[in-house]
UniProtKB/TrEMBL annotation:
This is Translocation and assembly module subunit TamA. InterPro entries: Bac_surfAg_D15, BamA/TamA_POTRA, D15-like, TamA_POTRA_Dom_1. The keyword Ribonucleoprotein does not apply. Keywords: Cell outer membrane, Membrane, Signal, Transmembrane, Transmembrane beta strand. Pfam families: Omp85 (PF01103), POTRA (PF07244), POTRA_TamA_1 (PF17243). Residues 103-176 form the POTRA domain. Belongs to the TamA family. Interacts with TamB to form the translocation and assembly module (TAM). Residues 19-91 form the TamA POTRA domain.
Length: 601
């Protein structure tokens, strides 16, 4: 009975042999099984397995610091049944590490990265001796040294001295790194860009200390240009000149054109439909000429919201960090709801939505600053046509804008475990500068992601906005510049842009009517909890709250819901159901199904 409590028994069986191990558990059992190997598949292998079993068990125990084990081996060689090999093991006392003598020579003594590795070393006096951990430490140091450019490094001495009588061990590791090599000249092969164009992407100075991390950053910069389908960054250590290692970069350009297709759909009860499909086509030309110009054209179609947008990009002082963009687009969008009062039914009935059609032409300069802040400033000309309260409008605007944003990610995957996004923008229009009215738009956006205990993930966001304009000019602010709420990136229990302040008026037929026209202010927040059922599947539940507001109409809206998310190789695909908890004056209590795809940062 006592043995059953203190000991565990491992049993493995095949057609020829049943193996029973008693007296050890955990890592000892696993290591013994690994040293014994797979069970025999022939009678000759069976005899060899039994004959070598005790030696293999001793080797397994010795590698984990047990040198005084007692092994009792018993074989029941049945003629008509598999043999039974029973191993009863008393491991004895483990060998403990008495001291660890680590000694370094060479330039590695001044390398803070190696010193940090030493601080986290998982081998110290008092630990049980484990030959596997010892070999792992030796291998780690060699790997790190090579990655840091100590190509002439070698062990002067590496040994384990075991005192079996005292059950103690002394570990000695003496390593001489020699001199650290440096980054040499970088050459680029296989591209058609101007000479020197790619030199701006090199993230290290000439003759800087060698590091594979620096080479990885160079690879990432080249990848971010979107010019190349294949990138190989090759340090030519065998061609080093003195301590300088030449770096050869082999490049394969992307195809001249690429086309991507996107699909999406919103399902649920909304103002006038129950199914809203979305189709998008993106056409990219990654490299138009040897100056690195590129273009991207997107076409999006949905029954009420077609969109065309072309962006032409010209690199300026840096291929990635300084770009000039010319943007041209035409789009139509719908907002809120228009309703007419039915006196016979004593209620308002939906008759449509506020529709805006606009054309735009913009010039944008985008720069990446220190600490990955992204700064852009722009001039955008636009003209928008819309009918509000049965009055036609077509104001023209020349908007001067600036924005700054930063995205911090805990990892570079399509489904980051942590991260923080922040965005701040301002736009200004003035009649003296070609606009219909004076307008100042301020916006800020935040998104925060954090994962706890591997499987528990929190995603939260906050969107704020304000339009500063004269009260008499509000109708001349185009719908695309006002604030609305609702949709898969806002309050998910309601349709896209259907929430916001409304106005009451008498329509052209003399009937009472009202129309959601958007607000001067926006405040929308969300908190979502996600749980990973498997590494590629998760479930989520969320609460969204807020609205678009005006001075005389402040009506907070809340929706709740949940969904199923698949972390696909091309990014998360999310199927979410949102349920609105409140009826407004213009919108009944609503529910929506959202199918979306794409990273959250």
């Amino acid at each position: 009975m006592l043995c059953n409590v203190l000991c565990t028994t491992s049993v493995m069986a095949s057609e020829l042999l049943t193996l029973k191990i008693t007296g050890v558990s955990g890592s000892l059992t696993r290591n013994i099984e690994a040293h014994l190997g797979t069970l025999p598949t022939s009678k000759v292998q069976r005899r060899a397995f039994v004959f070598n079993a005790e030696d293999n068990v001793n080797a397994a125990l010795n590698s984990l610091g047990y040198y005084h084990a007692k092994i009792h081996q018993e074989v029941n060689n049945n003629q008509d049944a598999p043999w039974l090999l029973s191993l009863t093991i008393t491991p004895g006392k483990p060998t403990l590490i008495e001291w660890v003598d680590l000694h370094f020579d060479g330039e590695i003594l001044d390398d803070s990265f190696i010193l940090q590795w030493l601080d986290n070393l998982n081998i110290k006096p008092g630990d049980k001796l484990n030959h596997g951990v010892y070999e792992q430490v030796k291998s780690q140091l060699i790997t790190l040294a090579v990655a840091r450019g100590y190509f002439d490094g070698k062990y002067i001495k590496s040994s384990i001295e075991v005192n079996r009588d005292m059950n103690t061990a002394k570990i000695t590791l003496h390593y001489d790194s020699g001199l650290r090599y440096h980054m040499g000249a970088v050459s680029f092969d296989g591209h058609t860009l101007q000479d020197g164009f790619l030199d701006e992407l090199i993230p290290f100075e000439d003759n800087s200390p060698y590091s594979t991390g620096s080479l990885s950053r160079l690879n990432r910069e080249l990848l971010d240009t979107s010019y190349f389908s294949n990138i190989k960054v090759l340090p030519q250590i065998d061609k080093a000149v003195g301590l300088d290692v030449p770096i050869k970069v082999e490049l394969s350009p992307k195809p001249s054109h690429s086309i991507e297709l996107g699909l999406g759909v919103d399902i649920g009860n909304t103002t006038d439909n129950t199914l809203e499909p979305r189709v998008s086509i993106n056409w990219r030309t990654p490299q138009i000429n040897n100056y690195g110009h590129s273009q991207e054209t997107s076409l999006e179609w949905s029954p009420d919201r077609p969109k065309y947008l072309t962006t032409y990009t010209i690199p300026l002082t840096h291929p990635l960090d300084d770009q000039l963009k010319f943007r041209f687009g035409m789009l139509r969008d719908k907002y809120g709801v228009t309703q007419v009062y039915d006196a016979d039914e004593n209620k308002y009935s939906n008759t449509g939505e506020l529709e805006g059609s606009k054309g735009l032409l913009a010039v944008i300069r985008q720069q990446r600053l220190g600490n990955n802040w992204l700064l852009s400033y722009s001039v955008e000309g636009m003209k928008e046509y819309y009918t509000q309260s049965d009055i036609d409008y077509s104001p023209e605007f020349l908007l001067f804008g600036a924005s700054i944003s930063k995205t911090s990610r805990g990892d570079n995957t399509l489904d980051p475990k942590s991260g923080f996004f922040q965005h701040y923008s301002i736009e200004y229009a003035n009649p003296n500068l070609g606009s219909a009215i004076q307008l100042t738009r301020l916006q800020t956006k935040y998104k925060w992601i954090e994962t706890f205990f591997d499987k528990h993930r929190i995603v939260s966001r906050l969107d704020l906005g304000v339009n500063l304009a004269d009260e008499a000019d509000l109708a001349l602010i185009p719908p695309s510049l006002r604030y609305f709420a609702g949709g898969d990136q806002s309050i998910r229990g309601y349709s896209y842009q259907e929430l916001g302040p409304y106005i009451e008026y008498e329509n052209s037929e003399g009937n009472k009517a009202r129309e959601v026209v958007g607000g001067r202010y926006l405040m929308v927040g969300s908190v979502e909890y996600q749980y990973y059922v498997t590494p590629t599947w998760r479930v989520g539940t969320f609460i969204d709250a807020g609205n678009a507001f005006d001075v005389n109409q402040i009506e907070p809206i809340v929706s709740v819901g949940g969904g199923l998310h698949w972390i696909s190789p091309i990014g998360p695909i999310k199927l979410d159901l949102g349920v609105g908890l409140k009826e407004t004056e213009t919108v009944d209590r609503s529910w929506r199904i959202h199918l979306t795809m794409g990273a959250e940062l």
